[in-house]
Design goal:
Blueprint: E1 4-8, H1 12-23, E2 27-31, E3 43-46, E4 49-52, H2 61-70, E5 81-84, E6 88-91, E7 97-100, H3 104-114, H4 116-141, H5 148-152, H6 154-162, H7 169-176, H8 180-188, H9 206-214, E8 216-219, H10 224-236, E9 240-242, E10 247-253, E11 256-262, E12 267-269, E13 272-275, H11 279-286, H12 290-293, H13 298-301, E14 309-317, E15 327-330, H14 335-344, E16 353-356, E17 371-379, H15 391-405, E18 418-424, H16 426-433, E19 465-467, H17 478-496
Parallel strand pairs: 1-2, 1-13, 2-9, 6-15, 13-19
Antiparallel strand pairs: 3-4, 5-8, 6-7, 10-11, 11-12, 14-17, 14-18, 15-16, 16-17
Helix pairs in contact: 1-10, 1-17, 2-17, 3-4, 4-6, 4-7, 4-9
């Protein structure tokens, strides 16, 4: 008889886990509180414009393909990749910009235009971090660490020391590269996992290095097309996805998770419960007894470290902006001060920005001759209670961001071309997606909150209860969450064997 599985939340972790388990013969149902599936990996549609709500940078293409491969499906029947090159266009307040391309000859020419010394340093930096990435990928990212000895055995500790993670990202970058513009370009990308390059461990320099060595991709139709592909595959296996179903409680009986209860007091039972809701939210809200929370009691959750949050402006423009690539950075004056503000409870006055313009390569996201762009600034999470996300705060951020955009040559008139405008705030992340404290990436992946020290896939206090998502091992980011899906399924299969 098939074992039944209930998954709370239809984020990318929940859906990929559902597909993998369905393909292994489990009876799987997914419950989502919103009317649209996808969690934070969602979509904003305002004809003729289509925007990815949050996630937009596709690294590690193979892990996207692997979800379908694990289900004995051909990914080509579900998604279409578009190569992105240059991977980034990086703009600066003095009017200069650099293209960082996958082509080594072009890249070297760009670096040599800065300085030969930094061109050499950049190559050495890539080599150093690539070596660390191979160690991390082989020995940590693909290991579950459910048991202490999996991590504390001598071989793991030796490999952990080889990653040299005790320096910060900026410190490591500065060892190899002297030019401030290059330092800022590489440092900024630590923010993709919600940590500061001046405080977070240097292992996250692997983010720009993976982009450079393996390239970036765009999914035709945007990142949400992956969600739709997972939905289609889930239905092909007979899986069930129910929206507008808000879970209020995970039901525990005799130390076992046996079902869920909705806010409307509907009760559904299953053999296995998996929460794709943000882990701290699950502990705080969905488990009612401290006995079942273990060390993650509500009183202890506030002592953990959380990632920063994000503020996003979505602009529908009436004309094309060829000055932009798909992925762009604007690295503003007072770079460190304004990056630090997201982690010290202040709004940046001169924000550095990530600018996403998918319509440079994907006409399916727009039904006119204009452009869709999303502009992302990192801001404090809601644990800093001095900031209220009201109309005044949004206007402050909007004006500062547009002021920065206008410093890019060719974008001086951008405000005149806006025909649609919308925003995403930390409060939206909390209210719509149960992001604990409005943190964009969940628990911060600090050294004391990573690998064995990060929340595990399997509850130590409740049988048949599992977790998947950005706040559990291996950490935040879409491609890493897809790895967490793979690992949690391995744990379930191992426990059922």
């Amino acid at each position: 008889m098939k074992k039944s599985v209930l998954i709370i939340g239809s984020g990318i972790g929940g859906l990929s886990t559902a597909l993998r388990l369905l393909s292994k013969g489990y009876d799987v149902k997914v419950y989502e509180k919103e009317k649209m599936i996808g969690g934070k990996t969602n979509q904003l549609v305002h004809p003729p414009f289509t925007f990815d709500l949050t996630a937009s940078i596709l690294m590690n293409r193979e892990v996207y393909e692997e979800v379908f491969h694990d289900a004995n499906l051909d990914y080509k029947d579900f998604i279409e990749f578009i190569k992105v090159d240059p991977t980034y266009r990086s703009f600066y307040p003095d009017g200069t910009f650099y293209d960082f391309t996958r082509d080594l000859v072009s890249l070297i020419k760009t670096l040599e235009s800065i300085s030969t010394e930094d061109a050499i340093g950049y190559m050495k930096f890539l080599s150093e971090v690539y070596e660390r990435y191979i160690i991390a990928n082989d020995h940590f990212l693909h290991q579950s660490f459910e048991n202490a000895m999996d991590f504390f055995k001598p071989s793991s500790l030796i490999n952990a020391s080889k990653t040299k993670a005790f320096s910060t990202s900026h410190q490591l970058i500065s060892e190899y590269i002297k030019d401030e513009k290059l330092q800022e370009f590489l440092s900024y990308q630590s923010l993709y996992v919600g940590i500061s390059p001046y405080e977070g461990p240097s292992i996250y320099t692997l983010v720009p290095v993976i982009s450079q060595l393996y390239g970036l991709w765009h999914l035709k139709g945007g990142m949400y097309s992956f969600i739709k592909a997972l939905e289609k595959a889930i239905y092909s296996f007979g899986g069930v996805i129910e929206t507008n179903f808000s879970v209020n409680e995970i039901i525990i009986s005799n130390g076992k998770a046996i079902g869920i209860k909705s806010t409307k007091n509907e009760t559904i039972f299953a053999d296995i419960i998996i929460s794709n809701a943000d882990f701290p939210y699950t502990m705080d809200t969905l488990l009612k007894s401290d006995t079942h929370k273990g060390k993650y009691k509500t009183s202890k959750l506030v002592d953990l470290k959380y990632t920063c949050s994000t503020f996003i402006i979505y602009l529908g423009l009436k004309k094309k902006y060829p000055q932009l690539s798909v992925h762009n950075l604007y690295l503003n004056v007072d770079f460190k001060k304004n990056i630090d503000s997201a982690f010290t409870g202040h709004l940046p006055t001169n924000p550095s920005l990530y600018i996403y313009c998918p319509t440079r390569v994907d006409n399916s996201m727009i039904a006119s001759d204009g452009e869709c762009i999303s502009i992302v600034a990192r801001v404090p999470n809601l644990f800093f209670r001095n900031i209220a996300w009201n109309e005044k705060t949004i206007k402050f951020m909007r004006n500062n961001i547009l002021s920065a955009l206008k410093n890019i040559s060719g974008l001086e008139d951008i405000e005149e071309d806006i025909i649609y405008e919308n925003y995403l705030t930390p409060q939206n992340l909390k209210d719509s997606f149960n992001a604990y404290g409005g943190a964009a990436f969940g628990l911060s992946p600090t050294l004391t909150q990573t690998n064995y020290f990060r929340p595990h896939f399997m509850s130590s206090y409740v049988k048949n209860l599992y977790f998947v998502g950005s706040s559990v091992h291996p950490g935040p980011g879409v491609s890493i969450v897809l790895l967490s899906s793979k690992l949690v399924v391995q744990e379930i299969l191992r426990n059922d064997s």
